[in-house]
Design a protein that fits this description.
Layout (H helix, E strand, L loop, with lengths): L3 H15 L8 H16 L17 E10 L2 E11 L5 E4 H8 L2 E4 L4 E6 L2 E6 L4 E4 L2 E7 L5 E3 L2 E5 H12 L3 E4 L4 E4 L6 E9 L3 E8 L5 E6 L3 E6 L6 H5 L7 E9 L3 E8 L10 E2 L3 E6 L25 E6 L16 H18 L7 E4 L9 H10 L4 E8 L9 E6 L5 H11 L6 H6 L6 H10 L5 H19 L5 E7 L2 H4 L5 E8 L3 H8 L1 H25 L1
Parallel strand pairs: 1-12, 21-22, 21-23, 23-26, 24-25
Antiparallel strand pairs: 1-2, 2-3, 3-10, 4-5, 5-6, 6-7, 7-8, 9-10, 11-12, 13-14, 14-20, 15-16, 16-18, 17-18, 19-20, 24-26
Helix pairs in contact: 6-14, 11-14
């Protein structure tokens, strides 16, 4: 029988011949099913023991940091790793290559970079870096140099400080973007990135170091305007950005009191008001061409009108269950129990509220039992669900990390989203066939295939639902839990469902304070009420769109 790697390689190489023509929502399920069934048929004598918990611990390799100049990212990158506490460290050998330096690592754990007559000296386990052999020019990094898989790494924020001292050019580490940025220090609006895809529209991303309050409005001649409060930008640099796709031209105006207006002159009218949402890098929206020639109406809304179909069945998915506890809090609270509790409360709200009593509610599980991912989406599809809501709690190595998030299905754009999706997808390890086959759901080729198979059929509807849920949660629990925005990632449980779907991370169970909130009935009631209200709002938009 061919090996798993050979099967994956064959399918990966032939994907354009069949996957490209047929992209049903459950393609990932079918693909994984092939792997799992093959493993079940071949597996014998394999250790059948099961883990009782799945935790992301130890170093986590990342894409590192991009080198940016004046807020504009380049193609250069320093590889990185997140060590204990979640702090980003960057590989010193990559720093040497970026600086064009020779490097030397001696047996005394001294690591030196040589650039002509200049040098930098690092020491493993020390936070002190000596410049040009002058102790008086030493730079103290916030944390010490560490060893990972035979390479030395230094903290990213310390690298920025070091480069400023060594090169004489201001450099800062922008953690939100994952950039080492030269120039433009102190700016919070860094640039504009345009990506045009003929079948999907023009993606516009306004790159920022922090979320800013903004307003949008349009004009009859086909201009979309966005004004930002508290903005600091290099206006001349923003004006140099060339139009692409539906964006014919970009105009930028500075107004009083740090108000910045960015005007997008459009080459075509477009279908409806775009969805705006925050990413790790800034504010993102997509312009789609209108088939009817209609222009945008003046609007402050950040959501398009939902598509015209009714909402008669809602599927509530309580994450994890049975032998899969999900994340476990500092005092032992289990994610599976919290998710089921909130799901039941939400179900009861649908049953009691006259506005939703006509909606058929399907629970993927209503007890403490393990349900495979494929069975969850299969049940949702068989019941002809109109919406799919998967309920979870978040977790991170650093116990201070907190907040609530709502995800929709799309390719992840940042390391945090990738890590969360990888954890939630790791439930595959509990499935019988996965254990027999010993699938590594973090294996790079599998991740690549899954990424290319992500269904975009319900992308816009899912964005709408995610935004409504995040707004409702913000209105109810923001004084207890921080709003971490909506985001996107490749969650398997969403990809198999043939309907708009979201995955809600209600709070960080790894944070002691938020674990305490998750124990409280009042908090869980607020979360359930937010989800219920968001579905009602979504349904109203559907009715308007009819």
């Amino acid at each position: 029988m061919p090996s798993l790697l050979n099967m994956m390689t064959d399918i990966h190489q032939s994907r354009t011949s069949w996957i490209g023509r047929h992209r049903p929502a459950a393609t990932v399920g079918l693909l994984l099913g092939m792997f799992l069934n093959a493993g079940a048929a071949a597996g014998s004598g394999v250790d059948q023991s099961r883990q009782q918990t799945i935790e992301v611990r130890g170093p986590q390799e990342t894409e590192g940091a991009v080198i940016a100049r004046n807020g504009v990212p380049t193609q250069e990158r320093l590889r990185g790793v997140r060590l204990e506490g979640g702090e980003l460290y960057l590989r010193l050998h990559d720093l040497a290559n970026y600086l064009g330096a020779r490097d030397r690592w001696d047996i005394k754990n001294k690591y030196e970079l040589f650039i002509d007559e200049r040098r930098l000296k690092f020491t493993l386990g020390s936070s002190v870096v000596i410049i040009d052999n002058q102790p008086s020019q030493a730079v103290n990094l916030p944390r010490s140099v560490e060893l990972h898989r035979g390479a030395l790494y230094a903290p990213a924020d310390g690298i920025a400080t070091l480069l400023t001292a060594f090169t004489g050019k201001e450099c800062e580490y922008l953690s939100r973007q994952g950039w080492l940025n030269y120039g433009g220090i102190g700016l919070n609006v860094l640039g504009i990135r345009l990506t045009h895809r003929p079948e999907q529209g023009t993606e516009v991303e306004i790159l920022m170091t922090e979320p800013l309050n903004y307003d949008t409005f349009s004009q009859a001649e086909g201009t979309l305007n966005i004004t930002f409060e508290g903005a600091r930008a290099d206006v001349a640099a923003l004006r140099r950005v060339q139009g692409k796709g539906l964006v014919r031209k970009i105009e930028v105006y500075e107004q009083r009191d740090n108000v910045l207006q960015i005007s997008f002159r459009l080459s075509h009218s477009y279908r409806d008001t775009p969805v705006f949402y925050n990413t790790n890098e800034g504010l993102l929206f997509v312009l789609r061409s209108s088939a009817t020639g209609e222009r945008l109406e003046e609007s402050r809304s950040t959501f398009p009108v939902a598509p015209a179909f009714g909402i008669s069945t809602v599927v509530i998915d309580a994450g994890h269950g049975g032998e899969d506890p999900g994340s476990v809090g500092p005092t032992g609270l289990k994610e599976k129990d919290v998710a089921l509790d909130i799901a039941r409360r939400l179900h009861e709200l649908f049953r009691r509220d006259p506005r939703t009593q006509d909606i058929n509610v399907i629970m993927t599980r209503d007890s403490d039992e393990f349900i495979p991912l494929s069975q969850r989406w299969k049940q949702a599809n068989e019941e002809k669900g109109d919406l799919f809501i998967s309920i979870h709690t978040n977790s991170f190595q650093d116990p201070s990390v907190n907040g609530f998030m709502t995800f929709f299905l799309a390719e992840a754009k940042n390391d945090e989203a990738r890590q969360i999706a990888a954890y939630e997808n790791s439930v595959l390890r509990y499935e019988e066939n996965s254990r027999a086959l010993q699938i590594d759901v973090d294996e790079p080729m599998l991740r690549g295939i899954l990424g290319e198979l992500i269904s975009t059929k319900y992308l816009e509807e899912s964005q709408v639902l995610a935004g409504l849920i995040q707004d409702e949660l913000r209105g109810r629990i923001r004084h207890q839990v921080r709003d971490r925005r909506i985001d996107q990632a490749g969650f398997l449980v969403l990809n198999g469902a043939s309907m708009p779907g979201v995955l809600v991370e209600t709070a960080f169970i790894s944070n002691r304070a938020e674990e305490n909130f998750l124990r409280q009935n009042s908090f869980k009631n607020k979360v359930a009420e937010a989800l219920h209200a968001a579905v009602i709002s979504y349904r109203e938009r559907v009715e308007v769109g009819r």
